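Hello,

I think I submitted the copper (II) ion job twice by accident. Can you confirm which output corresponds to this input? Input:
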Amino acid sequence: MNWFPENVSTYGADIDALFYLIYYIVGFWFLLTEGALLYFVLRYRRRPGQRAEYVRGDTATQVAWVLVPAVIVLILDLGIDAAGARVWETIKGEMPETEIHVRVTAKQFNWDMTYPGPDGKFDTEDDRTIENMLHVPVNQPVRATLRATDVIHSFFLPHVRLKQDILPGREIDVWFTVTKPGEYEIACAELCGFGHYTMQGWLNAHSEADYEAWVQESWPAA
Ligand SMILES: [Cu+2]
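Support: Only one job matched these inputs. Its output is below.
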């Protein structure tokens, strides 16, 4: 069962495990309840001599039919929450230390990737902005500061298992570490206007040496 794009991120497997946990729990109950529904529909269909019964739902047994499943749902929900909390903490909790910092500006309808350059500061002379192409090294955490100039967008890296809404007027930091060199799609996952579907970018994950070469090429003076 391989429904997801290839995972190339350090925390991708945790996200996938969470997806499958929810998938199997919900899938089991879906089949069980739909099966029961189908069975009851056939078993208690209109037949000569079979009279309908008026159920008030006020005896202990009848109340239990509602309360017991409610408690089971609650317990499973708390179990999913507990499993999710650990993953949430990894991804949204403390950001790992890193040298690689990019500012991603979403606008109708593309992505501006801004690098601070050798001085490590944004809004200076040596900044460099590239449209729709995010260059990163593998095996190093990348910190991206997300901004929007117009409407709400969503920064979606399917192969990295990262999706974060971007709100105008706010800066939101995310991080990820790519484990395999390659080019991976970046999509906008929030309907943001007529050109939403064209809002595509690429995550270009370089090997350490290739990334160094790209930095040299981009800022030759340094
Ligand atoms: Cu968008």
